[in-house]
Every structure is written in C-alpha cells, then in structure tokens.
Specification:
By secondary structure, chain A is mostly helical. Chain A has eleven helices and no strands. The radius of gyration of chain A is 20 Å and the shape is elongated. Residues 221-251 of chain A have low confidence and may be disordered. In chain C, 42% of the residues lie in helices and 14% in strands. In chain C, strands 7-6-8-5-9 form a five-stranded mixed beta sheet. The longest helix of chain C is centred in the first third of the chain and has 26 residues, at 2-27. Classes of the chains: A mainly alpha, B mainly alpha, C alpha/beta.
C-alpha cells in the first residue's frame, strides 16, 4: 500500500522534469482540441439555436458523440493521420465537439421567447438580439458544455500515450521504465488536473452568468441535490420539469443529460 | 557462436513451409482497408473479438447494475448513504482507465476478473445516481395514494416506485452500456479479449490498417446499437412523453 | 581452456539428458513400449544428426495428466510467434497450456513471472543479462551471455532452457537514402548528425540497450528520443517523422531493402538468443518430456526460420497461431 502514497510521491520528486514536460504536452494537446471544438461548435450551435432550426440534429448529436468509443476513434483515424499527435488531436476534437454544439444550441434556443420578443419590439435587429440578449443569457450553459468537454478531453488525452502522442499517458503506458509508482503518480496528477479544470470552468461560468441569474441557478442545483459538476439528478429527465416546460423542454433536458461528464480515459 | 544445442549444423536447417502465399497487394502495401483480408479473418479474429466485447460489457453492466440497485434502494431509505456512495463512485469514475487496469493487475492478476472489477467500478456512479434519482422522483401525491390504499413499504417499492423510476433507470443503463463498450477496448491491454485486441495487436505488429478500421468501426457500431436499443426502450417506457411528441 | 570445459559440460549434460529420457521412456504411462530410446541425446545432434527437428521429441502424449501450464509472451510479433510455437508443441504432446499473449515488455512480464501470474515465457539472453539482472559488465559472447543469464535466473528460482540458434538483437536503422546522404554505416557515424531523433519503444529511453548505451558507449549525447509502440517505428520512419528507429534484427520489414541497419561496433545491443524462462517447480512437476519438447522447438529456430515467420505475420498479416502451426507441422512437431 506504500506504493499509493510514498511510492507515487517519490516518483514525482525524482522525475520532476519528465512529469512537468509530459504535463505540459498533455495540457497543450487538450487545450488545442477544446479550442478547435469551440471554434467549430459554438458559432454553429448558437446560430442554429438563434434560427430555431435543425433541432433534432443539434440535440441528438451529443447522444451520438457520447456513445463514440474513444480508442476506436483513435484507431480508425490512425491509417489516415499516421502515428502521432495529429491522430490524437483530431480524435479529441471529434469527441469534444458534440457536447459543445448541443449546449450552444440549447442555450440560445431556450432563451425565453418573451424576452426575445420584447427585444425585437424595442427595435433591435436580429443580430443585435443575438449579441445583446440571447448570447449573454446563453453564456452560462455554453460554458457548461465547454466544461464538460474540457474535463473529458483532459481525461481521454491519456490514450495519446498509446498512439505516440505524448502527455501523461506516456508515463502510464510505460510500466517498463516507470513502474507502478509512475502509473499511480500520473493518475493522481490526472485526477487533480481534471478537478482543477472542473473548478476553473465552474469559476468561468459563474463569472459570465448575469448576476440576476446566479441566485436561481444555485437554488436549483441545491434543491435537486448532487455536487456541482458531477452528474447530478438535475441533469436527468425529470417528469415534473417535463410537464412544466413542455415537450421542447423535455427534449433539451435529454440533450443536456447527454452532455454529462464521462469517465476518465 | 550460436546455441549449445544446434539442430543439424550442415544439414540444411528446418523446413520452412509456405505460410499461405497469395497475399493480396492490398495487404502487402497496407492499403486503407483490405476487404478480402477482412472477410478471410472475420471468423478467426473479428467475430470472436466482437462476441467477447459483448460478453465483457454485459457482465460489467449486469454486475454494476445489481450493486448499484441494491445501494440505491438502501440509500432511498437511508438518505445519509447517498453522499458517501456518490463520492466513492465519482472517485472511481475519475481514475484513468489504463491506470486502473494496470493497478488492478498487480492485485488480482491478468484475467477477466481484474478487468471486470475495473469496468464495474466505472458503472457504479451513473447507475446508482440514476436509480436513486428515479426513486426519489416519484411524486409525493402518488406515494400518499399508495399508502392510503394500505400498501406496505415493500409493495410500494415494487409496485409503485420502481415502475415509475424505470425510465430514469433505463436512461442510466443506456449511458453505462455505452461507457463500458468504450472502456472495454482498453481492457485488451490486459487480457486478449474484446475489440481492443485487434487494435493492440496491430500496434505491436506493423500497424495493419485493416485491423484498425475494422475493429474501430465494429466497436462504434456496437456502441451505437447499444445506445439505440436503450433509447428505444426509454421511449417505450415513457408513453406520456411519446404522446406529447405525437401531439406536437 | 574454456572450450574443453564447455565440451565436458556439454557431454555431461547430454549424458544426463539421455539418461533422463531413457528413464522417462521406461516410466511414462501410455507412452508406448519403446519410448524414444532411439532418439539421439540433444548434446550430440550437432554432429550430423538429421536436420529435422523432430529429433529429440518424446513420442505419445507424455503431457497427459500433468498440471496445467500458464505461459506468457511479450508485446511484439516475434514473441507472439514464439509463444504459439512453444505452447502448440506442448499441447500436441498432451500438455494443457494457457497462453497469455501480449503481456508487455520485459520488466512487466518479468513481474508477472515472479508474482506467479505466469509460469514461463520466452526471453532474450542479453535482455536478461543487462536489463533485468542489471549485471554491469558487457559479456563478450553469446555463450557468456547465456551462462550469466542462466545463473541469475536460477538464483531467483527459474530455470533457463536451451537457447535458440537465432539471435534477435535490437538495432538502429535509417532509410537507405538518408544513410547514403549522411555517410552512415555504423551507429557511431550518427555523431555526424549532431542532434537527431530516435524512435523506439518507451523502455528504450532508460535502457543500456537503448538510449543509455547510445550516449555512454557511442557518445551520442544529442539524441532525442521519441516513444513509439513496437511496430509503429517503420511507418514513422517512412513518413519521415524520425531520423532513426529501433529495430529488431529479425524483423520482416528489413527484407524490403528500404532500410539501412547501422553496425553496432561497440556491441551495446548484446547477444540475444531466445530462451524459455521457466519456474523451477514446473520443470519438476511436468516431467522431463516438457523440457525436451521446448528444447527441440528452440533447436529448430534458425534465423531463416524466424525471419520467414516474422515476415508472414508482420508483412503478410497472417495469424501468429496459424504461422506457428504451419511451421510445427512441417517439421514433425505435431504428429
């Protein structure tokens, strides 16, 4: 059992350069992938939500994405990209994209119709409605989707070690040189990293939430229980909410449920 | 200098048979996907891998559900159980899968048992959370009515709460199945089973593209089929949502 | 003189082997009346005995009723083949073998061995000597390597059976045009490149038979290591992602003529015959036929044989089990 504490700590202190370098690569890979997914997903999702079209696609793509097995995607891409970081980044983008798209879509689509009407009534152009009304109200949920993707990407980037991509997976995949101590140490670091990313994005979400909405969001999550960030019952289809919000609400609730965080890979 | 015991030094060495020549150009050039190789090796390589993958998944989700179900029923009565179980489940959830498998190997050896322990651990959080949420979601009016009818607690559980919780439970099973299908590919790092085996084999012997694409596509297909099955089941079990969908 | 000692030891072992074979023939159940007293003792087969490796094989099913065997193999094609060769040959003689393939590289599989998860696996003598035993000196011959490895394993409770004729050492290769362009013939020539990339399995980063040796023996201090799974290196080299790669000297890909293997003038990669490393208690419990079969299989593995089998698996994508089966069949191990 010493392995789990002393051994791991020992490993980190004796391999500081290696750990830092792998950690750096890991973060860069993850950041690249999430950034690309954001650039691809947010504008598209926001626009679709604004024009209220293709809801079936936008909502179900996260169901599809959630089902994709990570290693399989990496394997399918390998013949096309060769061994190395390109394979990993493309795979991570594919896996990060769906929750971001769906959340962006739902976030904008669900902005209260009355509010939008009022804005229109005040003479705002559709573009202004989008940028001054819909987006600010949608930002928290968009960020929630990015958060889910980011945590998942950080965890899955570990598989890069098998496909020559570097990162903390290199240590986990190399039991030869680094032993069980290395594996355990790298796991701790990954768990802490995932936690930090979670916290960082939660903080960002809080920052971009218009003050008026902050109170009600906290109240809602407290009522339904569950720790912030972990899959809470709030993410699940709830018959009461379904009945209150109507069918669209139910569909989007399902969609949001599909953007739950996935286990570390 | 060679071995101490040399078979037939000058005798010409062992017979080296033809190992099945007539390999297609596609295979030798490692083309994107060699359909002929795939069909030839379906029953020897891919079919067993697919079946094993399904077995790994069914066992993990089955056991995970059994454990989570019991825990959820217990937590439904004793609320204080929920936070610690959720915490434990979350913790297990975050451990990187490759690391989890490797750590378990040093404890329980290189076998399916080891792999299944890890896979089951990953299902606990979602199945427990969903089952509990489903049970908790039953409205108090319905419960009052049931009590009013004179039902005992056990009857209330089996005849009222569980049926109403079923859609949520199925939703959890859907996620669990898809999660395990994905993780079971990594399991091949430890035991030579499942659709990860052709992938890891290919990594260790020449990066043969057909193996990657065939195993990868089969795995994605399996995940989507599993997802679709449970999604369908969910729909079937929520007739009121279906009615609304029809009316809209 | 070393050679006299060797000869004496060979005769001694050969005699002991012949004796135990005779004893086994007399006492084995259901093995048939005459057993194989006609077969030449392994020690003398170098002297013009028939080249068919079935020489030295027990007849019948001496394995019937013996305890089950758990065998492992390492994470690359040649090892998959070796695992299949040994396990199928044993099974043909009635033994019950479970083969746990693709366990990992040396340190991992050695851990599996010492912790009892497997009872035997094929290993390379040089790897045992330098990377597992960490014996600091560099043996000057395959024999010395074998003996050192054997001594070390025996101290730990594992027997080392006869080595194969073929050797498969690590090597360093580049693309032929690259080698010509930079005038690279030996590993030492890599110094001309200044800083260069070297792709290989992760463990090579910390091995003497890898980066450490390159730095210490050849002074290649500017090498940049890039971890690649075994089998991925050739593709990475083809795509110019690395300058040099780690190869195995019996790899099927080397026959293509595209690659230049650099000479290991300082011998950092050592002598590397394959030996079955077996738990001592297993040798006892499985009976003498067990070792005989393994030794007979090993004896048949010449460089040509293993390269042909590697090529079938690595290039032609044949299944290692089928390839092993075909080889064993052609050489009378499965009758």
């Amino acid at each position: 059992m010493n392995d789990f504490t002393d051994g791991a700590w020992n490993f980190i202190t004796t391999h500081v350069n290696l750990v830092l370098s792998d950690l750096g690569t890991h973060l860069v890979l993850s950041a690249e992938s999430v950034a690309i997914a954001i650039v691809l997903g947010v504008p598209l999702g926001v626009w679709l939500g604004h024009i209220h079209r293709f809801s079936f696609l936008a909502i179900n793509i996260s169901n599809l994405g959630r089902a994709l097995p990570s290693l399989a995607i990496l394997a399918i891409l390998l013949p096309y990209t060769g061994v190395g970081q390109l394979d990993v980044v493309i795979a991570l983008v594919i896996l990060a994209f769906p929750p971001i798209l769906t959340n962006s879509y739902v976030a904008v689509e669900q902005v209260d119709a009355d509010t939008v009407d009022a804005a229109r009534g005040n003479g705002l152009t559709p573009l202004q409605v989008l940028t001054k009304v819909e987006l600010p109200l949608a930002l928290p949920l968009i960020f929630a989707g990015i958060r889910t993707s980011a945590v998942f990407v950080v965890a899955t980037a570990t598989l890069a070690g098998i496909f020559g991509g570097g990162g903390l997976g290199d240590i986990i995949n190399n039991r030869e040189s680094y032993g069980l101590n290395g594996i355990i140490a790298a796991s701790y670091i990954l768990i802490v990293l995932a936690f930090l990313v979670q916290i960082a994005f939660l903080g960002l979400e809080w920052l971009v939430t218009p003050p008026g909405l902050r109170v009600s969001r906290v109240k809602r999550s407290r009522r339904r229980g569950g720790a912030p960030g972990w899959p809470s019952p709030a993410d699940l289809p709830d018959e009461h909410a379904d009945r209150d919000r109507g069918e669209e609400g139910a569909a989007s609730e399902d969609a949001l449920a599909a953007t739950r965080p996935r286990p570390g890979l | 200098m060679t071995g101490l015991f040399l078979a037939g030094g000058g005798g010409g060495g062992p017979v080296i048979p033809n190992f099945g020549g007539g390999t297609s150009k596609c295979v030798i050039d490692n083309g994107r996907f060699c359909w002929d190789w795939f069909t030839q090796n379906w029953s020897g390589t891919f079919e067993p891998a697919l079946i094993q993958h399904i077995e790994l998944t069914v066992i993990a989700v089955g056991i995970g559900f059994a454990i989570s179900f019991l825990l959820a029923i217990a937590a439904h009565r004793a609320r204080w159980l929920a936070p610690p179980v959720t915490f434990l489940g979350s913790l297990l959830y975050t451990i990187p899968s490759l690391a989890f498998f490797e750590i378990m190997v040093s404890i329980t050896g290189i076998n399916w048992f080891t792999v299944e322990i890890a896979l089951v651990s990953y299902t606990l959080l979602i199945l427990f959370t969903n089952t509990l949420a489903g049970l908790s979601g039953v409205s108090s009016e319905v419960l009052d009515a049931a009590h009013g009818m004179g039902m005992k607690p056990a009857q209330v559980l089996w005849k009222v709460e569980l049926p109403l919780a079923l859609p949520t439970i199925i939703a959890g099973l859907r996620v669990a199945v898809v999660t395990v299908v994905s993780l079971a590919t990594v399991a091949a790092y430890i035991v030579p089973a499942g659709l990860g085996k052709p992938i890891f084999d290919a990594i260790g012997s020449g990066l043969f593209n057909t193996k990657f694409i065939a195993a990868g596509v089969l795995c994605v297909a399996l995940a989507l089929v599993g997802d679709g099955l449970f999604a369908g089941l969910q729909r079937v079990l929520t007739p009121w949502a279906a009615a609304r969908r029809g009316a809209a | 003189m070393k050679s006299t000692k060797l000869f004496a030891r060979t005769m001694g072992v050969g005699l002991a082997a012949a004796l135990s074979v005779a004893l086994a023939a007399c006492s084995s159940s259901g093995a048939g009346g005459t057993g194989n007293t006609g077969a030449p003792a392994p020690g003398t087969s170098g002297a013009g005995a028939p080249s068919q490796s079935a020489a030295g094989l027990p007849s019948g099913k001496p394995g019937a009723g013996k305890p089950a065997i758990v065998m492992g193999d390492k994470n690359f094609a040649e090892e998959y083949i070796l695992g299949e060769l040994y396990s199928q040959a044993l099974e043909a003689k009635g033994y019950k073998v479970t083969l746990k393939g693709n366990i990992g590289s040396s340190a991992t599989i050695d851990k599996a061995l010492t912790s009892g998860k497997i009872q035997m696996y094929p290993e390379y003598t040089g790897v045992i000597y330098t990377e597992l035993a960490h014996l600091g000196d560099r043996p000057k011959s395959a024999q010395a390597t074998y003996e050192g490895a054997k001594k070390w394993e025996e101290k730990r409770g594992f027997a080392v059976l006869n080595p194969t004729p073929f050797q498969d050492a690590d090597g360093i290769a580049t693309l032929k045009p690259f080698a010509q362009q930079h005038g690279l013939k030996t590993i030492g020539d890599l110094k001309k490149l200044g800083s260069f990339t070297y792709g290989g399995p992760p463990e090579n980063k910390t091995r003497y038979q890898g980066v450490i040796g390159m730095k210490q023996a050849y002074g290649l201090t500017k090498v940049q290591f890039k971890p690649l799974s075994i089998g991925a290196q050739y593709q990475a080299l083809d795509q110019h992602q690395v300058d040099t790669i780690a190869i195995f000297t019996t790899d099927g890909q080397l026959a293509s003529g595209k690659y230049a293997v650099l000479k290991d003038t300082k011998g950092i990669f050592g002598y590397q015959q394959v030996v079955p490393v077996v738990k001592k208690s297993l040798i006892k419990s499985e009976g003498p036929a067990f070792s005989q079969i393994l030794n007979a299989v090993s004896a048949s593995l010449t460089t040509d044989a293993i390269v042909a089998m590697n090529k079938a698996v690595q290039i032609d994508q044949q299944d290692p089990g089928k390839v092993a089966h075909a080889f064993l069949q052609a050489n009378g191990f499965l009758s």
